[in-house]
Design brief:
Chain lengths: 459, 279, 296
């Protein structure tokens, strides 16, 4: 037995040795540079001659985005053979946050994407608000100033100003906008029951009722990850809060002129409660975002709450599916309908990663209209450059609503430091409503939210 | 005392029920891993009609497991061997009282199991090592990660102390009279004597390193250094709802440890954990 | 006293001990001490950036800020988790160990199977149970439907924490069981025979003979369970990700350290509070267990 044990350990050691020796070329075909170049300290900017300079790029997993970025990287490497792009992705959301929080300060990243554009920056009316990560990075000199780069001009001025400018300097490129406050719907099912796209809250309720009468489950939402539920709530917020002026509501919260338990805020919660209780698939609180789309493509439901970026995944899962998209209406006035969204995937170039100039080259390459077009078409983002063609889906289903496009509550809202869980992550968390959650009525939740908001006031 | 027949029956029923609670989930995952995706969607938990071993090759390829597996073997093999040796170096003199302040050091080493989370300072330390010592032993390096994972303290140390205490001191004295040196005594006499507890130490250390979820994201940034858990995560991110492939990945990650466990399980049960008791 | 020579050779134990000590100091104890220091500062996760001492501000933020109620909930939940896991896991493990120890057919198989989840690791165990607890068409929900019941499992505010406790016990019961088995196997058989002749019942023989003899195993298991349970975050991370009222102190430490803001003072303070809690528990448990051992 000892011998076996010793043998096993020896085997491990041997394998280990092999791994260590074969570590470079054999291990990772996509990694052209040999080990020293990738593990080199940030300060060590000199590269041995004849070797490719590595651009370390960090992103999150989303298969359509990753595919197109890899294809762009390939073209970039063909055009600039002296560079090699090492594109690393992690799971989306929190794990991504963990990755950039440690790797950017460590100087292990040359270019990375933030999950949304600059936001949450404290304002003069938000005493005591926390400084967000991107701003701390900039304040501490980790982010490259892009103001003088010529490729900035390729983008709409307004979008660069909203999504990439901080203290009058351009530090980021928002790669596209997304709309996310609506529902995908199955056109065949709608046609079968003679249903039209609803433009008012009553029509929306009617659609759901008809589906229910015909034993079709109307809606799927991914409750387990919480944020997908927020998408629907935010679309209601944009239309209902302060009569459709949510910025006023948000500023009012800080100044004490509006409250989370005001009638308009309660109406948002109540309407969400109606949707959750009556029309959403049973057990939706257990559905995680990764499986949400399969309920829609598997025709277990007629609609799903999701962002427009998911269109590609729907098509990929079921190429012959006949589907559309509409914003969730909140009132009975069709003129007040809005579609909320945000800037997605915002590129920052670091200046401590060892290859800032390569990263800027990449961004320049990326910003060329034909490359950008490829990117937008593949990801399903709404373009932030002028004269870019979008996908058929976006043209037909989303563009008609873009006149009423508005940045989402989660982007506009500036939270207080140490805020309670019923308001954390810039959301209103309707998942806390019964039956899933503990609050029987919208009012109860709203009261707790207002209490938490006041408790978090700076002392 | 002979248990009665009915008591035996109750015992068997009890064990059988428990066995089901343990085996059914694992077998179900195995079953899912053999199914095609369509089959799974239509009929998630029926017995797989045909064995889709192609799932495994597919998962193996998609998850980059061949790269990650080698890294995991390296990390696990090296940290385990070094940790065990370090634990013996620490446990033996403390168990025997050959160094001053033994009791204090014992408590200090046992406390390593619940110290305040050191990760922030570790992160800074690794950056310091990378920038000021050598890039191969600091942040984002294989050796750096192994240094962090290596430890002679904790539960394994505690068990070693307990077990060594149960070995007669006369042995030391006899060896001393024969003129054996300290180091030789440790490696040639003590180590073979404490084999069972070493086996336990090995399995516990191996489990800890092999299944490390957090360390790799925190301290390794290049994919070429990622261990096998990173492969599993990559998988979960990419194939969130493709359970057959996901189940294959689960099996691939779990298999090496299960095999190791089968090799040395006899030791672990037969008296090995007694070490923990004797302390 | 020291049998391996005199003079310089007397230094060997110290020399070799210095190795693990150096590792421990440099990579674990040292960084932990820094955590205590950081807990009194406004340090952020950007190396080289100067930081200042802010006194007890971080601790005040834990107990008196806007979300302190949740932090206290986390602490309560940690205690609940620790109590339930410690008691149920040990009770079950002891029972299983006693049952298996009566030389059942296939006893070796049983202990291997029950230990298997420990070997599989948290990531794998979490995936296994996520599949089992699939809220729609999952096997457990199918089973529940026999009783006209259904659940969203890890997506349920009221039940998710219970399921996490279940998975935790499922995972680590085997480890406790092995330690009890090892203890039971060291109990001499003739002791029972003496008891049998005296006409004791099974329960009495267990109470009077077996239990005192496996008391050391009991002590070790209780301590391991307490320390383990109070530090558990990975199973929570991999199943609910702290959602649905399932956060514990250890999860909060993880969340604030890795996924919160760049500020590291608060998570450091949380770590210190967690450490003090565990220390207190361990000391109390040792006192209680020692008292009991003396009684017998």
């Amino acid at each position: 037995m000892t011998r076996k044990l010793a043998g096993l350990l020896a085997l491990c050691m041997l394998m280990a040795l092999l791994a260590a020796c074969g570590g470079n070329g054999a291990n990772k075909p996509t990694n052209g540079g040999n080990t020293p170049s990738t593990t080199a300290p940030a300060k060590d900017k000199e590269q041995p001659s004849g070797e490719k300079k590595v651009i370390k790029m960090l992103g999150w997993k989303q298969s359509t985005n990753n595919t197109v970025i890899e294809s762009i990287n390939k073209k970039f490497e063909e055009k600039y053979p002296e560079y090699k792009v090492e594109y690393v992705t992690t799971a989306p959301d929190d794990e991504y946050k963990q990755a950039y929080k440690t790797r950017v300060p460590a100087g292990e990243v040359d270019i990375f994407a933030d999950l949304s554009a600059m936001r949450l920056s404290p304002s003069d009316w938000t005493p005591g608000a926390k400084v967000p990560d991107w701003q701390q990075f900039i304040d501490n000199g980790l982010i490259q100033d892009l103001s003088d780069q010529a490729f900035i001009k390729n983008y709409n001025e307004a979008d660069i100003k909203d999504g990439g400018t901080y203290q009058d300097k351009v530090y980021a490129i928002p790669a596209g906008k997304v709309a996310m406050g609506g529902l995908f719907y199955n056109k065949d099912i709608f046609a079968k029951y003679d249903l039209k796209v609803p433009t008012t809250w009553s029509e929306f309720i009617n659609v759901n009722e008809v589906l229910l009468q015909n034993n079709v489950t109307p809606i799927a939402m991914a409750g387990k990850d919480k944020w997908p539920v927020k998408l629907a709530a935010m679309n209601l917020q944009a239309q209902l809060l302060a009569d459709g002026n949510q910025s006023e509501f948000i500023e009012g919260l800080w100044k004490g002129t509006s409250k989370f338990n005001d009638p308009d805020a309660i109406e948002v919660l109540e309407k969400m409660k109606t949707i959750q209780d009556k029309y959403t698939i049973n057990g939706f609180m257990g559905i995680d975002y990764g499986t949400l789309t399969s309920y829609f493509t598997g025709e277990k439901v007629a609609m799903m709450v999701n962002g427009v970026w998911e269109a590609g995944a729907v098509q990929a899962a079921k190429p012959d599916m006949n589907f559309g998209y509409f914003p969730l209406p909140a009132t009975d006035d069709p003129a007040r309908i809005k579609l909320i969204g945000k800037y997605d995937m915002t590129w920052y170039v670091t200046n401590n990663g060892g290859n800032t100039e390569g990263a800027i080259k990449w961004l320049e390459f990326f910003s060329q209209p034909e490359i950008y077009q490829e990117f937008v078409q593949a990801t399903g983002f709404l373009p932030v450059q002028p004269n870019i063609a979008t996908t058929e889906f976006l043209d037909a289903e989303v563009q008609p609503y873009m006149n009423n496009f508005e940045v989402a509550y989660e982007i506009k809202m500036i939270n207080r430091d140490n805020i309670g869980q019923h308001l954390e992550a810039e959301g209103i968390h309707t998942e806390y409503l019964a039956p899933g959650g503990e609050f029987k009525t919208a009012k109860e939740l709203a009261d707790v939210q207002q209490k938490e908001w006041e408790a978090a006031a700076p002392k | 005392m002979q248990p009665s027949i009915s008591a035996k029956t109750i015992s068997y029923v009890f064990v059988f029920v428990l066995l089901c609670i343990y085996l059914v989930p694992i077998l179900l995952v195995f079953n899912v891993s053999l199914k095609s995706f369509e089959d799974y969607l239509n009929n998630p938990f029926s017995i797989a009609s045909q064995f889709n071993f192609s799932n495994y090759t597919e998962a193996w390829k998609q998850g980059n497991f061949s790269d990650y597996l080698l890294n995991s073997l390296l990390y696990t093999g090296v940290t385990t061997v070094v940790s065990i040796i370090l634990a013996i170096f620490a446990a033996f003199p403390i168990a025997r009282g050959y160094i001053a302040w033994g009791g204090f050091f014992y408590l200090l080493f046992v406390m390593s199991q619940f110290l305040p989370n050191p990760v922030v300072a570790q992160y800074r330390l690794m950056l310091f090592l990378r920038d000021n010592v050598h890039s191969d032993i600091g942040y984002n390096s294989k050796i750096g990660y192994m240094l962090l994972r290596t430890s002679g303290a904790g539960l394994v140390f505690m068990m070693f102390v307990g077990y060594i205490k149960s070995i007669s001191r006369e042995l030391d004295e006899a060896a001393g009279i024969d003129g054996a040196g300290y180091l030789r005594f440790l490696f040639q006499i003590i180590m073979p004597l404490i084999k069972p507890i070493i086996a336990t130490g090995v399995i516990l250390t191996v489990i800890g390193t092999w299944n490390d979820l957090v360390g790799p994201i925190q301290f390794l940034s290049s994919p070429e250094h990622f261990p096998i858990t990173a492969g599993l995560k990559e998988f979960r991110g990419q194939y969130g709802n493709n359970w057959p492939l996901l189940a294959c990945a689960v099996m691939i990650v779990a298999a090496p440890l299960v095999i190791l466990f089968l090799f040395i399980q006899k030791y672990i049960v037969n008296g090995a954990l007694a070490g923990a008791i004797k302390s | 006293m020291y049998p391996f020579g005199r003079g310089v050779t007397r230094l060997w134990p110290y020399l070799l001990f210095a190795l693990p000590m150096a590792f421990y100091l440099m990579f674990l104890l040292g960084p932990s001490i820094f955590t205590v220091i950081y807990s009194f500062t406004d340090v952020i996760n950007i190396p080289g950036k100067a930081y200042q001492f802010v006194g007890l501000d971080n601790y005040k933020d834990i107990f008196f800020a806007g979300n302190s109620a949740e932090r206290i909930d986390s602490i309560k939940r940690t205690l609940q988790f620790t109590f339930i896991v410690t008691i149920v896991q040990n009770g079950l493990a002891l029972l299983v160990a006693v049952v298996i120890n009566q030389k059942l057919l296939g006893d070796k198989l049983y202990r291997s199977v029950f230990f298997l989840p420990v070997v599989l690791g948290v990531a794998v165990v979490a995936l296994i149970w996520t599949l089992m607890f699939d809220p729609i068409n999952g096997p457990v929900n199918k089973f529940y439907s026999l009783f006209n019941y259904s659940d969203t499992f890890f997506g349920s505010f009221t039940n998710s924490f219970g399921y996490i406790i279940f998975v935790q016990i499922w995972m680590y019961m085997g480890h406790s069981m092995l330690i009890y088995l090892a203890g039971l196997q060291s109990v001499p058989k003739d002791l029972y025979e003496a008891g049998y002749i005296d006409g004791t019942t099974r329960w009495q023989s267990f109470k009077k003979i077996t239990f005192p003899l496996i008391a050391p195993a009991f002590t070790v298991n209780i301590l391991l369970s307490i320390i383990g349970a109070m530090q558990t975050f990975d199973i929570i991370l991999a199943t609910t990700d702290g959602q649905f009222n399932s956060r514990t102190m250890a999860y909060d430490v993880y969340k604030e350290t890795f996924r919160g803001s760049l500020e590291m003072g608060l998570p450091s303070a949380l770590s210190v509070v967690q450490f003090l809690f565990i220390l207190l528990f361990v000391i109390v448990a040792i006192q209680l267990l020692r008292k009991r051992e003396v009684e017998y």
